[in-house]
Structure formats: C-alpha cells, structure tokens
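Appendix B. Raw example, untouched.
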Amino acid sequence: MNAVGYADQKNISPWAAEAVLTLQKSGIIAVKDGNLFDPQGFIKKEEAARMIAELLQVK
C-alpha cells in the first residue's frame, strides 16, 4: 500500500505507508511544496494545527 502522488514516496518507510495513505485520503495530511510528503522533515506549528483541526472534523 503506497501513498499516491508524492514525489518522494519512495522515502516513506514501509511500516508507515498504510497510515500515510489513510491520512492522505482523509485530507488530514497535505502535500508540501514540490509535491513532497517529506517523511524525514520537521513539521511547522501551522501544519500541526491544520492537521489537528482536520483530525477533529473527521467522522
């Protein structure tokens, strides 16, 4: 199971791929500039806040 559409999807660890796909389909995670997921990067406060807000709205 692979996340779709990320330019760096090969960098997503196999153990995390299903969770990334689920979060992606739910709209909880969004693509970063350059169509990247950036699995080894840091998250900004604004990104975390948006993800939490999206998570709280998922039913």
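End of appendix B.
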